[in-house]
Recover the amino acids of this structure.
């Protein structure tokens, strides 16, 4: 007599979204530079086109592109920090290999921190400053884009 195996039923959408998020974190250090270089090409091509047309290259589209570059920078730094951990090894084996036997890994999202015990920081020192710098660039450029749109509307539609 055969017994049926238990079936775990989950909401398909939630499981799919979770897999997408895991993929975005795991492949972030590869995806972010590609997105960043794409953004650089777009921003530079907009600036060259504006020069050829003898107009200012500091329009809202350029600032939105710079904001995109800031987000890509922050995304790359964040995922690089989160993935600086054991990978395929267990946490105890990984910490022991680094010279911290008996410790487990603790992770903090912001500031990004992956630790083996109290002293074994695994995230490189450049990750958090680059993360904050990218976010500041994104917010400042987005604010500049809003100002550029406001000024363009005032110029074209005076009250």
């Amino acid at each position: 007599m055969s017994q049926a195996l238990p079936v775990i039923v989950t909401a398909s959408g939630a499981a799919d979204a979770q897999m997408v998020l895991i993929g975005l974190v795991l492949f972030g250090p590869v995806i972010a530079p590609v997105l960043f270089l794409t953004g650089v090409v777009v921003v530079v091509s907009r600036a060259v086109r504006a020069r050829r047309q003898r107009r200012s290259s500091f329009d809202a589209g350029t600032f939105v592109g710079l904001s995109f570059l800031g987000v890509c920078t922050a995304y790359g730094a964040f995922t690089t920090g989160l993935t600086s951990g054991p990978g395929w090894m267990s946490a105890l084996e990984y910490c022991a290999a680094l010279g911290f036997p008996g410790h487990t890994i603790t992770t903090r999202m912001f500031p990004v921190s992956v630790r083996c015990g109290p002293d074994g920081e695994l995230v490189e020192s450049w990750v958090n400053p680059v993360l904050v710098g990218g976010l500041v660039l994104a917010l400042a450029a987005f604010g500049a884009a809003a100002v550029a749109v406001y000024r363009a509307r005032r110029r074209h539609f005076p009250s």
Q: What stands out?
A: Helices lie at 12-26, 28-52, 60-82, 91-97, 127-156. The chain is about 65% helix and 5% strand.
